[in-house]
Specification:
It holds the Pfam family Ctr. The protein is an all-alpha fold. It has four helices and two strands, in the order E-E-H-H-H-H.
Length: 156
């Protein structure tokens, strides 16, 4: 039976039928795995933002970082290729790496969201605490909150 409201208990199906918990040990182990996955999500996001700043040529203080994340204005010449700035002079391998990291991080974020949609209260708390601890460990100390990040996901 699929729950449509929050419930508490050790019996939960997380993400797929093969990941069912029926004992307290299995349930607590699953919660630890979800907490670590959520913290890893924050680590990957911090790494992706740092890679994006390096790939974009940003450096210096927070204002320089914020300015480097803003794309240059588009040329008014209609003959200018749309992809020319994105793949200019050797920057495209770094941009592809950042895009790949964005894809992996988005995949992990959506899997965490689907785990929360099991509606188990413990799963919800484990994911939220993992995100908070990951943010505290990997993203809160270096002032990158000042950087404008182009991530449309609410879980970022």
């Amino acid at each position: 039976m699929m729950h449509m409201t929050f419930y508490w208990g050790k019996s939960a199906t997380i993400l797929f039928d093969g990941w069912r918990t029926s004992t307290w040990a299995g349930y607590l182990l699953s919660l630890v795995v979800l907490l670590l996955a959520a913290a890893f999500y924050q680590y990957l996001e911090a790494l992706r933002v740092r890679m994006k700043l390096v790939a974009g040529g940003g450096g210096g203080g927070a204002k320089a970082k914020a300015a480097s994340s803003i794309p240059p204005p588009a040329s008014s010449d209609p003959r200018t290729p749309l992809l020319a700035p994105a793949f200019a002079a050797g920057r495209w391998p770094a941009r592809v790496a950042v895009a790949a990291m964005f894809g992996v991080n988005s995949c992990l974020g959506y899997l965490l969201m689907l785990a929360v949609m099991s509606f188990n209260g413990g799963v919800f708390i484990a994911v939220v605490v993992g995100l908070a601890l990951g943010y505290l460990a990997f993203r809160s100390s270096d002032g990158e909150d000042l950087v404008v990040v182009d991530n449309p996901c609410a879980c970022a």
